[in-house]
Amino acid sequence: EATMPANGATIEIVEAIEIRFDDPMRVTAVTLTGPDGQLAITREIGLDPVTEFRATPPENMPVGAYTVDWRGLSSDGHPMLGTFEFTVAN
User: Which site in 19, 30, 53, 56 is 20 to 30 Å from 73, CA atoms measured?
Assistant: First the structure.
């Protein structure tokens, strides 16, 4: 599994939120929380199982710390969840 932005990264612009899985995952929920609370993101796929999940965050995200929380179902039906964090800086 890998994420973009990488966990713990400091970046200037967030063009996409990406999560890569070793096995197909049905991502059932994903949230992006920043310094001013939860932000709306746009999923690029539905609820089909994927090995690469991608969502578009809002433009011009303010400087600060962000957390992405996700939940999903593995291909064998087990619930999974994860979190990663990154910082937006000038």
Answer: 56
d(CA 41, CA 83): 16
Task: State the Cα–Cα distance between residues 76 and 25, nearest whole angstrom.
Answer: 9
71: tokens are: 């939940």
The 8-class DSSP code of residue 58 comes to: P
Q: What pTM does this model have?
A: 0.93
pLDDT value of position 45? 85
In sign, the C-alpha dihedral spanning 89, 4, 42, 74 is: negative
Two tokens at 66? 């962000």
> Two tokens at 40?
């709306």
